[in-house]
Amino acid sequence: MKKFSLYAFLLIFALSSCQKEKTTETEEITKTVSEDFPETIEVPMNPTPGDNSMNALDWEGTYVGTLPCADCEGIATELSINYDGTYTYKTTYLGKETEINEIEGTFQWDETGSMITLSGLEGAPGKYKVGENRIWHLDMDGNRIEGDLADKYILTKQ
Prior knowledge:
This protein is of the alpha+beta class.
């Protein structure tokens, strides 16, 4: 009986030691990742448990497409999003002007880790659903645009 108690004690001690090491590794990883980003950018590392666009996809990069336009041939759009929480947004109104409008700013992830909102855009929703090698331009309420032109609101990663 003494041997059994000793083995049970050693087993419990070993399991609790393993758990302690796991916690330390997680803390070190979190510390390393947060030191790589500027302190002024708030990018939550894991807003929800499980995989989501923010933590499971290779989302950093440049996305391009031509969005529909009511009074022109289309809006040539290029959106570059970066791991440090910054973006560059370029648009050109086709058939109206040749000037490229460029805006730089920061973006925030929503609580689900699947949608970003660009700060500093006036007159545009600035909301995008992030997917595998594509992002969907969303309406003012953060919903996917539906109807005949729905597929025109997708920007593809280059």
